[in-house]
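input
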Amino acid sequence: MDAELAQILNGIGPRLRALRRDRGLTLEALAKDSRISVSTLSRLESGIRRPTLDLLIPLARAHRVALDQLVAAPATGDPRVHLRPHRKDPGSVLVPLTQYPGRVQVFKQVLAPREPKLVTHAGYEWLYVLAGELRLILGSSDTTLRPGEAAEFDTTEPHWFGPAGHTAVEILHLFGPHGDQAVIRTGHET
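output
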C-alpha cells in the first residue's frame, strides 16, 4: 500500500467520529440509522477496522453526505465544483452553492432541532424542503412544510424556521439580501 492510500484510509475513522459528534449522534443512534452494529462503528472510528464500501455507503446515507466526503478522496476536475460545508450548531450544516456577493445566495442546509427564536432582517427568502419536515413561523402563522413544498417571504416579517420534530430537516435556502424576489415565468408569452 502506498503512503497516500494509507493516509487516506487512516483518516476515515477520525472523520467518521467527527461527523457523528458534529451531528450530536451517539453510536447507538447511528447504528440504528445505518444498520451497522455499535461495535463495528466503534472499531471503524478508532481505526481498528478498515472501512469497506459495504460499510461506508450506509454511513454516507445516514449522514446525508457524499461518499467522497467520508473518504476525503483527492479533489479532481474543476475546483469550483468542490463545495465546502460549514458546521453550524451541533448537527447543522450549511453548504454554500453560490458565491455572488450582493446577489441572491443559495445554500443547501441540514438543520438540527433547536428552539424557535423569531428574527427580522432586510432581504427575501425562499425555502424548499428536500427531506424531513420544516416548521416555518412567519409572524403569527405557524406552518409545517414537507418534502417538495416551498415557501417564500419578506424577511422584515418576524420569522423562524427549523425542524418540525426531533430530527434534522434538509432544505434548499435562497436568500436575496436586497429584497430580491423571484421572477416567475410560466407558459408562453403572447
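quick obs: The mean pLDDT is 84.
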